[in-house]
Design goal:
CATH superfamily of the largest domain in chain B: Vaccinia Virus protein VP39
Helix content of chain A: 25-40%
Order of helices and strands of chain B: EEEEEHEHHHHEHHEHEHEHHHHEHEHEEE
Structural class of chain A: alpha/beta
Radius of gyration of chain A: 30 Å
Largest sheet of chain A: 5 strands, antiparallel
Radius of gyration of chain B: 29 Å
Distance between the termini of chain B: 71 Å
CATH architecture of the largest domain in chain A: 3-Layer(aba) Sandwich
Largest interface: C-D, 79 and 83 residues
Helix content of chain B: 25-40%
Oligomer: heterotetramer
CATH architecture of the largest domain in chain B: 3-Layer(aba) Sandwich
Chain lengths: 368, 449, 368, 449
């Protein structure tokens, strides 16, 4: 998916906040356009804007004024139908989504109906819509991290590094203040811009651009926390109670948490280090122990998606019947067999039995 | 400075105490003396004011010791000890430290070890009790255990460690105090082998359900909770974090109950005040929601029950007797229920944990959810979710992005040099289904290009 | 479970071999008596023998002469029934097994039927029947190991250490020759005796006690393979093609595989090291690489058992009906409600509807 | 010494070749020239006689090189190279070695790296092809790739490695020969994304099925195989290991087929001779097994088909014409089928992989299994096994120790310093049900004590 938001655009505040009772899509809203499970696109709506999808072009004006959650449909011309079909072949699971109509290969000219949905952004949908600038912490992990760190709306959270900002959105939704650090300057700038567009920067609250400090709560810094620690100019005391380190060498950053101006010194605090390799985990445990952390626990989250599937069920008696018929046909010769079969069918129809129905394949819903 | 009851141990609160055997138990600081059984007892006032997460050692007065020794056999000790907070130890861990252990590891193989059971332990259990009473701190206790076990040096490092940890758990007198958060409450129920009460939900599943439900401090959520209040508490925790008086936060939870009176006994451990819960949580039964009355009917019912008393007159009164006030309350509650049952497209998420037949249920209550908002269903079994997904949601154009998910957390033994997955036979923690309620556009209303 | 085989007993040869067509249990056969899923006992049958179980005493003579797979039943006296009940309470899953009869708490005197099954030993059942002398490699792992080492009836397998001998039985069934090593002398003696009783020792083939070298194929040695390597007196060249190391420090044994008399020098050979901890795996990989092993892969096997369970299903309408009734009852007062209810029921019975059937709990079969 | 075809590459055999991209492909040494596409080609006789597991490098004659370069653009190279076995390398691995990699790791962070895509690689693909043709061995190839990538030193160690491995896989000319064992065949099907053909069974599931079925060299097994012969081959491998002439082994497999002719096309890769398979494997269709004829009926049928020819006369003949022999064969096969269908309590295990409705199937064929022997069913889905277990086996006293099992193998990236679980999206590998057939004792036949 391509981010279609202009670099300098400033959508309406509160993109990630629940809508009011009216639930109406407004001009300049940042919305997520759901095209399929694997194609969700962030768009800022303008009166004159256009949105190109595999189902053709949608005018932003067709979307503005609708309720969030609305389906916006259009009839596809045959050219688009063809493209849609090719797409469907590749990706059968998406068939239901985005396209409705009979599968009629003969009449390509027939108009088909294609649609998109306009959705309010949530951190989870945002994660799905992201161009993968860096590796992403997925919702299976991030939800668990949030719960284990016991993050609530009172928590001050430290996150290093910011990366794609995907997890920052999730933390920001739940926590009090989020201090996030990114050592890669370009990535920091990208993330900062994004947070600004999403109305999540604490600076905007300070500047009076928004009065919802539950939402505008992110403070982002360009920083190598391993070398330069966590202290920042904006605040004297970070008073963090939750720390999340997604760094190649978290053990280098852990000693920097000892500065009394970083962690809240007057309450229980928690840290989570996220590493792919066991060797990293080992060094991290060493650093945590050396720096006075206790109750250290390593865990791994395994998440899975399920889907219902259709399964063939065959009956033994059906199979036997087919084999008997084949044998008889061979023994009698083809023409005799047809005669015989006809007679037998006539006899059986009288008895209300239809022997010809060799329905070998019956479908049942099952799952793996 | 006043104690912050969210971060510090306070009076009149439910607290969780972790014992040396690592199990969690719930106590209340309303109790004057908290007794931990064989791990000792102490005055609850001694621990008030310290931050949650503090480890305390129980120490006994010197002059009590002799008495204690005499009493030991016959009855339980009666004088509580003094709970001393461990200071200058940021780890605040009940675990036995490696320093103590590593001093005693010399033998390299257990080739020559023949298990002689408990006969080889020169210190008897009574001796150990004695030591324990005499203010012996954990490390001293352990070196005593080691030097009195004749076979100890013959064991392998591993069995030495196992042995020490077992003894330590049995004899040390210390404990850690934790806040009664939903996460700690879950651990408590797990230790109590009582997960059935919360539908066998795991921490990772409730976490995923909360994230997918997009819980925010100002949202309004429609919930069914068959976990005795655990789900509600978890949602409240994300919204309010224990703080009742933040004016910037005003989200609500509306609970659909199966019975007339909601069964949310676990909610009491949340330590929220009744006023706060009353303001934040609304109850409505399936009957009141799905078979609603209208105002006329309620007025008629009021007349029938109260024998021709006019509600309008009561409402107009400036001062009411308690009985009159109860009658007004009844009427106003009926009105509010009618309002809820008529308010469709309103809630920011539908969060379900229920044994009801799901297709039927979702079909009838999804109308209350705001379009574009999530519906997230937890179930202990997979089949009902597959059924809901395949036989209802996927066939219905009012639902988008239907997913069935499972998440499970694998704990590891987290000792350096001995890292390995732990074999746990716990249940699988359940399944989740999530989808988004959307508005279906009638195909005939669309212009053909 | 307790092994009831006498130390010096020598049961009939071929305990682990498929039976002939007759399939008859003979005197002096080593059999597995299946009492419940968690209680399987190895027994050598004698004319005069007796077997005590929770269902009472079975005479060996009741078992001898039956077909393998036979149920042997007996009626329990009330004392035994009580014990059985207590057992059942603890372990509900076993209810079906071992006991049949109505659950009649009032009439304790009624005789109940208890039974055992007599089974031919298999390595997998043997593993279940074992007293856990050491940690056991379970069938989920051992079957995978057999397959990944590509063990066939032509393979010469090295196993260190022998441990409980559970895995040795599985290897022995499938492989050509099994060279197994145990550094703990008492355990080695126990295992050797067991192999002898089971007719699995290669020495018995050499001594002419059996002519089935596919079965009598184990050579066991008391040896610390880390210090003293794998070479043994009995054969000049082990010619192993598969190695399984279940040792605390496999990296110490790996260099000893380099002796050209240990591994087959003229074909592809495979090794599997079984370790619980990552640090061990790391050292093992290092040793394997240093000693010229390639295509190294670490895997973990996760095995699970499933069971069907009953699930409650509640209907919304039933719940609403119950609530409506409660409300009416309260509004009407108890006595009026009864009258009202009676009238309504009479009316409804005419219509063939039974409103009283609030069957809130319906059962469905499901599984976790 | 003659070549052992089980351990060494021989003529006229199916073999598996692992390519530098780590994928498995099946070839046949019957082919004179084996072409591996962009990885080169060679004469199959060059690899015959070397043990399975050998890695070969393909080298081209010096004097061919110029020609090759000219041809390069237009058409495919026509002269095969020479396959040279790697000697003095017991690892025989296609992986890129750490020695080569570690020489080139200097930069420590990718802070300054901006991805410039392929423009930065000074060696063009054509250059690399050229290098490759000129007898460049893997390590040389790689140092060339490194020194020609201007940005290489700016990458992190990790991305350097990833880059090298990618290039190596693309350009090196080497391969490894493996025996066509069931395990390697499975990897081949996995690489080909063709696991549906074998019912999505995983190595760990087939392994567990074989162990639970207690396969022995002299057993007789009753099998249904909807994996196109993969299951049969796996059983044969455990029984015989590829060796056809061991007189001490004489087990058989009886296959119940759905159709008249069994569909076991994967069995050809087993390299067993037709004679051996004919001797060891018997086929019987569900009809022939469950709707058997008797001898009288077969004789009548023989008469009807062969127009009053007397089978007894044919059988009595000392010499028969081919046609007569065929008729005798037909008759004898019918007799043997009748015998099979009448032989109950015979087989040492029932091993099933089938789409048939399982309750019905097991109910009708379990009679052929010897009491006390295992029944082991594989299914891609869990529901049919739960159904078989709960609705049939658990209600029937003829089955003991009913278990439903799942096993799954988790591969790890096995590089020291970088060990972590690999995220694979493969299917779950299926479920297994196992139980033991037993003999139920009528309760009325037992004396009351």
């Amino acid at each position: 998916p391509v981010v279609e938001i202009e670099k300098k655009e400033h959508p309406n505040q509160g993109a990630f906040v629940h809508t009011d009772y009216e639930n109406i899509v407004k001009e300049n809203d940042l919305v997520l356009v759901y095209i399929s499970k694997t194609n969700i696109r962030p768009v800022v709506l303008h009166k004159e804007g256009r949105l190109n999808t595999k189902y053709g072009t949608f005018l932003h004006s067709e979307i503005i004024g609708k309720q969030y959650g609305s389906q916006i449909g259009k009839f596809l011309n045959s050219n688009q139908v063809n493209r849609g079909k090719r797409h469907n072949k590749k990706n059968k699971d998406e068939k239901k989504e985005g396209e409705v109509g009979e599968e009629n290969n003969d009449e390509e000219d027939e108009k088909k109906f294609g649609f998109i949905h306009v959705l309010k952004p949530t951190p989870e949908l945002w994660t799905l819509s992201l161009p993968h600038r860096t590796q992403i912490v997925y919702t299976f992990d991030s939800s668990y991290i949030t719960e284990r760190l016991q993050i609530t709306s009172l928590s001050n959270v430290i996150e290093a590094g910011t990366g794609s900002g995907s997890l920052s959105h999730q933390f920001s939704r739940t926590c009090g203040k989020l201090f996030t650090y990114e050592f890669h300057e370009v990535r920091k700038q990208q993330a900062e811009l994004e947070f600004q567009q999403h109305g999540l920067l604490y600076q905007d609250y300070l500047d009076g651009k928004t009065d919802d400090k539950n939402v505008a709560n992110i403070i982002i810094n360009h920083r190598d926390v391993c070398k330069d620690g966590f202290l920042i100019d904006q605040v004297e005391n970070i008073n963090a109670d939750c720390v999340f380190l997604d760094l190649p060498a978290p053990w280098e950053a852990i000693p920097n948490l000892n500065d009394p101006r970083v962690m809240n010194q007057n309450k229980q605090v928690r840290v989570c280090c996220f590493s792919p390799c066991f060797e990293q985990v080992d060094k991290t445990i060493e650093a945590l122990e050396l720096n006075g952390w206790g109750s250290i626990e390593m865990v791994e989250i395994q998440g899975r998606n399920f889907e219902g599937r259709k399964r063939m069920v065959k009956s033994i008696d059906d199979a036997i019947k087919v084999l008997c018929d084949q044998k008889e046909r061979r023994n009698l010769g083809a023409s005799n067999y047809r005669k015989y079969k006809k007679v037998r069918n006539e006899l059986q129809e009288k008895d209300g039995i239809n022997d010809d129905e060799h329905d070998l394949k019956r479908l049942k819903t099952n799952s793996i | 400075m006043a104690i912050d009851p969210i971060t510090h141990i306070s009076f009149d609160k439910y607290i969780i105490i972790q014992l040396p055997n690592e199990l969690y138990k719930i106590y209340n600081t309303f109790t004057e003396v908290i007794g931990l059984g064989k791990y000792g007892s102490f005055y609850s006032k001694d621990i008030v004011g310290y931050p949650y997460g503090t480890v305390f050692d129980i120490e006994y007065e010197e002059n009590d010791t002799e008495d204690q020794n005499k009493k030991q056999k016959g009855k339980k000790e009666e004088t509580p000890g003094v709970a001393i907070p461990r200071k200058d130890d940021t780890a605040q861990s009940l675990e036995i430290t490696d320093d103590i252990l590593s001093n005693n590891f010399n033998s390299e193989s257990n080739r020559l070890l023949i298990d002689q059971g408990s006969s080889i332990q020169k210190l008897s259990n009574e001796d150990i009790e004695l030591l324990k009473e005499q203010n012996t701190r954990a490390d001293k206790l352990i070196s005593n255990i080691i030097s009195n076990n004749g076979n100890f040096q013959l064991k392998t490092k591993q069995s030495q460690q196992k042995y020490l940890i077992r003894k330590f758990r049995k004899f040390s007198k210390c404990f850690k105090v934790e806040r009664c958060t939903p996460q700690n409450l879950l651990k408590f129920l797990m230790d109590k082998n009582d997960l059935l009460r919360i539908n066998d939900i795991s921490l990772e599943s409730i976490a995923l359900q909360l994230n997918l439900s997009n819980i925010q401090p100002n949202g309004n959520y429609l919930v069914m909770d068959e976990t005795g209040g655990f789900l509600i508490y978890s949602i409240l925790e994300r919204m309010y974090g224990g703080k009742e008086d933040d004016e910037t936060k005003n989200g609500t939870i509306t609970i659909i109950t199966e019975t007339e009176h909601p069964q949310l006994d676990l909610l009491k451990y949340s330590n929220y005040s009744d006023e706060f819960l009353k303001k934040t949580i609304k109850y409505i039964s399936v009957m009141e929601l799905l078979k609603p009355q209208n105002e006329e009917f309620v007025r008629a019912e009021f007349l029938r029950i109260n024998e021709d008393l006019n509600i309008n007159e009561l409402l107009a009164l400036k001062e009411r007797s308690p009985l009159q006030q109860r009658k007004v309350n009844w009427f106003e509650r009926q009105m509010s229920l009618i309002k809820i049952s008529n308010t469709v497209d309103y809630y920011d998420a539908l969060v379900l944990q229920t044994d009801f037949e799901l297709k039927e249920l979702v079909d009838r209550i999804s109308k209350y959810v705001k379009p574009g908002s999530p519906i997230v269903v937890f179930c202990k079994f997979r089949e009902p979710l597959l059924d809901l997904s395949n036989e209802y949601l996927m066939k219905n154009l009012n639902f988008l992005n239907v997913k069935i998910l499972q998440t499970s957390c694998r704990p590891y033994q987290t000792k350096r040099g001995k890292i390995h997955p732990l074999m746990t036979m716990k249940s699988n923690g359940g399944w989740l289904l999530s989808c988004i309620k959307v508005i279906y556009q009638d195909i005939n209303s669309v212009d053909k290009e």
